[in-house]
Amino acid sequence: MPIKELSVRIRREVRDGKFQVATTIIFCLSIAFLVLVLGMIINDHFKKFVLYEDLHFSSLNAFPPLFSSSLSPCMQQCNSSNTAYGLKEWISPKDRWHSMTDEELMWRASMVPGIVQYPFNRTPKVAFMFLTRGRLPLAPLWDMFFRGHEGLFSIYLHTLPEFTYEPSKSSVFYKRRIPSKLVQWGRSTMIDAERRLLANALLDFSNERFVLLSETCIPLFNFSIIYNYLINSNQSFLSTFDDPRPIGRGRYNKRMWPTITLSDWRKGSQWFEANRELALAIVSDIKYYPLFRNHCMPPCYMDEHYLPTVVTKFWPNLTSNRTITWTDWSRGGSHPAMFMRNDVTGGFLDRMRNGFNCTYNGERSTICFLFARKFHPNTLQPLLRVAPKLLGFDP
Ligand SMILES: *[C@@H]1O[C@H](CO)[C@@H](O)[C@H](O)[C@H]1NC(C)=O
Ligand SMILES: *[C@@H]1O[C@H](CO)[C@@H](O)[C@H](O)[C@H]1NC(C)=O
Ligand SMILES: *[C@@H]1O[C@H](CO)[C@@H](O)[C@H](O)[C@H]1NC(C)=O
Ligand SMILES: *[C@@H]1O[C@H](CO)[C@@H](O)[C@H](O)[C@H]1NC(C)=O
Ligand SMILES: *[C@@H]1O[C@H](CO)[C@@H](O)[C@H](O)[C@H]1NC(C)=O
Ligand SMILES: *[C@@H]1O[C@H](CO)[C@@H](O)[C@H](O)[C@H]1NC(C)=O
């Protein structure tokens, strides 16, 4: 009896339950249908969302406002020079200005490709790195020098940090300043500036030779001669010599021993020229640089000893041991002669151009200096007068 009763109750409950489930399903379906109809009324494109295939089979133009924001225009035409990140920005940054710290910059500049072959047409360039305080007084002469040789050179300016003047757009010096810091004569901040210039120039993978110049420097030949002389040289031009006098060996600090010994100690001109290999070595040096910064302070002038000593000790084959920037020390003192308006004559410039003997790629050469210093701003007019004829610039 109780079993019969129980089975009847169960059957009834199941029937009621089924009924409840059916009611719920019908209710939900009608709600969904209502929503569907409402949606279709609100937006007659709604159907196209529900039908998934529409995304693939209808033309993209059917939904112009909906898709232009989520799909890049690159989908239709990809071009490494505009929208997408390409090689161009990596091998040759468009702007000189950037937000990297010195530490970040040196690290980035020290990168060397593991694949030797370049995947682009590389025309080697000469990087002209100007270490100046402010405006370049002889800029018109340099403008004349560079004109017509675009693609074969790069220019970098390290100035006082507060100097913000920008020359006209037509000048080769327009937007060529790099992020700069204060420089003190004879101190490590001078080397920091040189390394900063080298590092910025190394970011352009086409730069092959790196020349350091000052605001009082002038070129002694036309661009083609200087370009070929540097590009074809198998060594850099960084002067180094052993000076036994107090102003040479006398500046050696025993605390550098044994890393740097007295017999390693060298002196040389600050105004160097480096090939890419040497430039990379200089920005990558984190071992010897701090040693000099801590133990070579005035009257030890770091710019006269750090590179000559380190390069002679570790990369002696990379330099010819001579500088290509002519300077007149014959008048004595701790600064070289400064030339004035009346000094600039054809004969005077010719002596610097051809009055010496030196070795170039293992052969004797009379072209030993490509640049000269120091020229006072008042030499600009006489220089502009003699330059076209003497230096063979295009007038
Ligand atoms: C890439 O874009 C640049 C600049 O917009 C244009 O000059 C060049 O012709 C484009 N190249 C290709 C292959 O589309
Ligand atoms: C560097 O010079 C030394 C001798 O001065 C020579 O033995 C060596 O082969 C040279 N190295 C290179 C890479 O030219
Ligand atoms: C430069 O000087 C170093 C050491 O004084 C020497 O080993 C090297 O051969 C010199 N290089 C040239 C090209 O004379
Ligand atoms: C350079 O060498 C040539 C030939 O040996 C010689 O006549 C000339 O006087 C030398 N010049 C200098 C400045 O030493
Ligand atoms: C540079 O080239 C000259 C001439 O070919 C050669 O005698 C000399 O050894 C080379 N120097 C280096 C460092 O390769
Ligand atoms: C550079 O000077 C040399 C020698 O004076 C000359 O042969 C050459 O044509 C000049 N180049 C230019 C571009 O003026």
Automatic annotation (TrEMBL):
Record's bilayer topology term: Single-pass type II membrane protein
UniProt keyword terms in alphabetical order: Glycoprotein, Glycosyltransferase, Membrane, Transferase, Transmembrane, Transmembrane helix
A GO cellular component annotation in the UniProt record: membrane
Organismal lineage: Eukaryota, Viridiplantae, Streptophyta, Embryophyta, Tracheophyta
Major localisation: membrane
Chain ranges passing through the membrane: 21-42
Cellular compartments annotated: Membrane
GO molecular function: glycosyltransferase activity
Pfam families assigned to the protein according to its UniProt record, in alphabetical order: Branch
Name this protein carries in UniProt: Uncharacterized protein LOC105160693
